[in-house]
Design goal:
mainly alpha; 60% helix
Length: 112
């Protein structure tokens, strides 16, 4: 599994790129989210191409934003981690340690 963290910082790079292409700052800020998605997509493709040739390539790729906030939701990360594990015993171990996430526990209990 590959985790791309702090991908929300790509907004800064997006604004810079848009300004370099002639957009005014305010207009660049408005278009930054879409440009940042394009940058992230290109980065992910480069990473997938590089790691895809490994003997054991990653099973999944996950980009995370806002994880520095106290209210950050780790459900997507935990779900991706559990799904990336091939052995049911390891999945159960990961899920069982997440006592605070009852919904995830139930989801995987129903799946198995």
């Amino acid at each position: 599994m590959v985790l791309l963290t702090k991908t929300d910082t790509l907004n800064f790079a997006a604004v810079e790129q848009l300004q370099e292409r002639g957009f005014a700052f305010e207009e660049a800020k408005k278009k930054a989210a879409e440009e940042a998605r394009d940058i992230l997509h290109k980065l992910q493709e480069n990473i997938k191409n590089s790691l895809g040739t490994c003997k054991f390539p990653p099973q999944s790729y996950l980009s995370l934003t806002g994880m520095h906030e106290e209210t950050a939701d780790c459900t997507v990360l935990m779900n991706c981690t559990a799904n990336a594990l091939k052995y049911e015993g390891l999945q159960k171990l990961v899920i069982s340690t997440q006592q605070s996430n009852i919904a995830l526990n139930i989801e995987f209990a129903v799946k198995k």
